[in-house]
Specification:
Helix content is 41%, strand content 24%. With 177 residues, the protein is α/β, with parallel strands linked by helices.
């Protein structure tokens, strides 16, 4: 059994890391979510800030656990928003560290409705804004905006699992990276 520490207690993020890394390793994981700070805004509004938040969370997990768990997997997922050529979208950055090897990746974009993006620019957070629009409660710990805007054909967890799986490529083929 391998150990995995995730830079959040959000069950969607913890379960995505547990599934993706456990699947790659083909073994069960002892996975624990840690309440660590991202060091960025609660709702990151740029790609750079979102990426830094994921890296900061992994570093915070390692600062707490690495001495006792040097062979553990350290993972963080930071959701953010930015404006791209085709409009505003939400996405997540994934940071992974294992035995001093790092990989940072990103999920696909989910286009955001203009009214939602406007609310985020006014300081609101995506999860609560989606709860308000769709009359849901705590959607960010469930299917997320992704689930709501895709009729649950994709979910926050499914997108995170894929982003982690892709970011694991350097660990699958270390000689190529």
């Amino acid at each position: 059994m391998a150990d995995c520490f995730v830079g959040s207690k959000n069950p969607v993020k913890v379960e995505a890391a547990e599934f993706a890394i456990g699947d790659m390793l083909e073994m069960p994981l002892f996975t624990v979510g840690l309440d660590v700070k991202s060091g960025v805004a609660e709702q990151p509004l740029t790609s750079q800030e979102t990426r830094q938040g994921a890296i900061n969370r992994v570093e915070a997990c390692m600062a707490l656990m690495r001495e006792d768990y040097p062979d553990a997997w350290y993972v963080a997922i930071e959701g953010g928003v930015d404006v791209f050529e085709d409009g505003p979208a939400t996405f997540a950055y994934v940071a992974i560290c294992h035995r001093d090897k790092w990989s940072v990746g990103r999920s696909a974009n989910l286009p955001l409705p203009p009214s939602v993006f406007q609310a985020l620019q006014e300081g609101k957070e995506l999860g609560p804004e989606m709860d308000r629009l769709f009359d849901t409660k705590n959607i960010k710990q469930q299917g997320g905006a992704i689930g709501l805007l895709t009729h649950h054909r994709a979910t926050r967890q499914s997108v995170y699992e894929l982003a982690i799986t892709l970011a694991l490529a350097p660990f699958n083929f270390p000689d190529l990276y």
